[in-house]
C-alpha cells in the first residue's frame, strides 16, 4: 500500500470534475486546507486545548474525521507557538475482517509515533447486546475505558478525539430530544474521574469540509462494521434532520453551532444557573415558599395539569 504523506496542501484531484483546470483545483484545495488549519488553530486557542510540553494522544480510528484531525495537527505542529508531542493511538477492537495492516503502514510512512492497543471489545459487545439492539453505548464505554487506561499508563496530558462541529450539534439535539436536558459535547472536558483532559480540535470544522478534505488527501479509510452499520440509530435520525435543515435553510447548522457558545442563563429556566428568586425581590419581603404555595391551593375539583384530580 502506498501511503500519502502529510503535505502542506491536499493534492488529489479525485473528487474534482474530470476536465477541471488543475490550477483551479489546486487553488480550491489550498483554500480548504487553510480554512481547516485556521479553524483548528482557533479552537485550540479559544479553549486552551494544547499547552507547552503537552503529550497529546491522537485517537485514530481509521475514519475520515480522525485522519483529518491528525493531518491538520501535524501541519500546525510545525509552526505552533509552543512545543508539543503527538502520538497516534488506535484501538483494535478485533472486529472480523478489520484490516490490521492499514494504519501501521500509513503511520510508518508518515514517520508519526504510534501504538495499536489490542482489546477484543467486539466479542464482548456482540455477546452482551441482544440481537437487533444498538451496540454504540456499550462499545463507546469500553473503547473510552481502554483509551483512558492507556493514556494514564503512558503519561499523556491530553486525549484528542475527532468529533467535528456537526457531531457537537447532533449531540445537543440527542440530549434535548431523548434526555430532556440542554447539554452537548464540549470542545474540551475533564473526565468524570478527573484524570484526563479530552479535546476536540475539529469543534469548528464542518463535516462536509472533512469529507472533501479526506477525499483530496486519499486517506485509507477503514469503515466501522460494528456500530456504524446499524440502522435506525437515534444519531442517524438526528443527522438526517440536520441535513434536511441544511438543504432547506443553508447556514442553519452554523447558526446553531454558534448558539452553543452564546448561552444566556437568564433567558432559560434553570434556577441552578440563574437566581430567579432574587430577581425583582423587594428587601424585607418574605421569600417564596413552594410548599406553602402548593399546600394553600384551593381544591376546586378541577383536574391538575398532570392528571385527573383525586376525589376527597
SSE inventory with pairings:
Blueprint: H1 22-47, E1 55-59, H2 64-79, E2 85-92, H3 102-110, E3 114-118, H4 121-128, H5 136-153, E4 158-160, H6 165-179, E5 188-190, E6 197-199, H7 207-217, H8 234-248, H9 252-259, H10 290-295
Parallel strand pairs: 1-2, 1-4, 2-3, 4-6
Antiparallel strand pairs: 5-6
Helix pairs in contact: 1-2, 2-7, 6-8, 6-9
Report what the structure shows:
The protein has 312 residues and is of the alpha/beta class. It has ten helices and six strands, in the order H-E-H-E-H-E-H-H-E-H-E-E-H-H-H-H. It has helices spanning 22-47, 64-79, 102-110, 121-128, 136-153, 165-179, 207-217, 234-248, 252-259, 290-295, and strands at residues 55-59, 85-92, 114-118, 158-160, 188-190, 197-199. Strands 3-2-1-4-6-5 form a six-stranded mixed sheet, sandwiched between helices. Strand 2 (85-92), helix 3 and strand 3 (114-118) form a beta-alpha-beta unit. Helix 6 packs across helix 8. It is globular. The termini are far apart.
C-alpha termini separation: 80 Å
What is the spatial order of strands in the main beta sheet? 3-2-1-4-6-5
Shape: globular
What does the radius of gyration come to?
24 Å
For the biggest sheet, the summary is: 6 strands, mixed
Concise summary:
With about 300 residues, the protein is of the alpha/beta class. The chain contains ten helices and six strands; from the N terminus they run H-E-H-E-H-E-H-H-E-H-E-E-H-H-H-H. The protein has helices spanning about 20-45, 65-80, 100-110, 120-130, 135-155, 165-180, 205-215, 235-250, 250-260, 290-295; strands at about 55-60, 85-90, 115-120, 160, 190, 195-200.
